[in-house]
Amino acid sequence: MARMVFSLPRRVKCRLRELRRSTRDKGLAMRCQIVLLAGKGRFRTGIAESVGCSVSWVDRVLARFREYGEMGLLDRREDNGIVKLDEPFLARLYEVVDKSPLDFGYSRPTWTQELLVEVMAVETGVRVHVGTMSRALKAIGARRGRPKPMVGCPWATRAKSRRISMIRRAISDLSPGEVAFYLDEVDIHLNPKIGPDWMNRGKQKQVLTPGQNVKRYVCGALNAASGRLEYVAGDRKNSLLFIEMLQKLLKIHALAQVIHVVLDNFKIHSSKQVRTWLEQNGKRLRLHFLPPYCPDHNKIERVWEDLHANVTRNHCCGTIDDLMKQVIAWMVRRNRGITSRRGKDAA
Description:
11% strand, Nucleotidyltransferase, domain 5, 3 domains
């Protein structure tokens, strides 16, 4: 293959080098480099390999440079017409993605890019290509993920808001002699929870499951002020496990005048056995029950999510005792980390 005959005056080379150096447009810098390499008599294939493009694209760049000079190297997309992915379009797309196709009269419950194109054409009067919709979704930070299942709270909205506001005030307005905890139980299964993990293309990791499931239970109480986690473990999730946790809180905070406990409406928290125990031993305890099906307002739920992510999900333990050792070790490390961070902050 013969070298390309492409002569560049020195002043043109200097301008192209300066333009390549100063521009923030990577495409323009690459087109300048193509012309400069052609001016040195490089082969088309060599130019394409150097800049990482196709030979045909090298030909198009050089053809436009011969016809229009340096102006031919500029991006011509401004000639395509008005910008479609403007701020109003993206803002409306953000609102649409938060909803369901059912809200716009479609029978399909989940979004596809093609369906978003149709809905946005009606909502904004602007029709874009599916590829452009992909860029628009990236621009607003949208992602494909698993929706979180939830059960609607049966309470009226006003009653729910009033109860949550009351609990928040009780936690935020603690006197010096009061402490507050978020309490909940978590199930530990010997059969591991299966969750996403990185793996090489064409390969799928395997998680060995014992088959016969065995369970243990942890009742935890998250200190609202310090973030420290107190916990007890047991073979059964019942009122006795809950009472054991309350006894531990009373023992740890023997000098506290009032111990506030935020918890859900699980039946073991309000059984006859618990009520009898509270009448005899719970004078310093104040139980604040959340509205039904409102786990997002119990901050210890995030701790359990971290526990599953760091220990129980895809675990390889052969016995429930080995798994519980890892669960306890993780909670101990977590508390140590919190204590260490608080010490650094105080210093």
